[in-house]
Amino acid sequence: MTQIPAQKFTAELADLFLAAGDDFISKSVPELELTYEGIVGDHHAGLTRKSGGREPWYKRGTDMRNERQVSLLSVEEVAIIAERLDVDHFDAGRIGANMLISGLPQFSQIPSRTQFFFPSGAVLRIDGYNAPCKIAGAALQADYDGRDDIELGFVKAAAELRGLVAWVERPGLVRKGDEIKVRVWPQQLYQPAKA
């Protein structure tokens, strides 16, 4: 079985966003306070959340652990999505970003369990990939008059580039411009032998 050893990287926290309203659309802010419940004042904060379409194994609306407290995107991948959509750039807050990270190649492929360490002592634990949806595409389309193709086009353009979701492992303050120390745990591909 092939095993990849633990890896360490550094990255930069390029921008921060808070979804302080009744939906996921977020606005740029200079800092965020992280607690065990997530980002203070954010739409996705909470120790638990209600299950939805991503969890068909539960009846919709079932209380479950909130592993989606923080939405992270990559500066580099957002640029690729914009290019695929044929727009100059877009506001990552329109698709619900909380953190925009720079300097981590293949960002959306970062595996589960990876930890992001911030100077304050705050730590995020990556849950996994955040698949694109047409709801985020519709929010983005609202910024582009006459571009009725973006709502559904976003799903295709953002495939494998939509970023990650995470939960707060250790509370603290994070600030725009922070250096992030990234620890990727050892990995091996799980492929049980066929009987």
UniProtKB/TrEMBL annotation:
Domain MOSC: residue ranges: 26-183
Pfam families, sorted: MOSC
GO molecular function: catalytic activity; molybdenum ion binding; pyridoxal phosphate binding
InterPro entries in the cross-refs: MoCF_Sase_C, MOSC_domain, Pyrv_Knase-like_insert_dom_sf
SUPFAM superfamilies xrefs: PK beta-barrel domain-like
Source superkingdom: Bacteria
Protein name, entry field: MOSC domain-containing protein
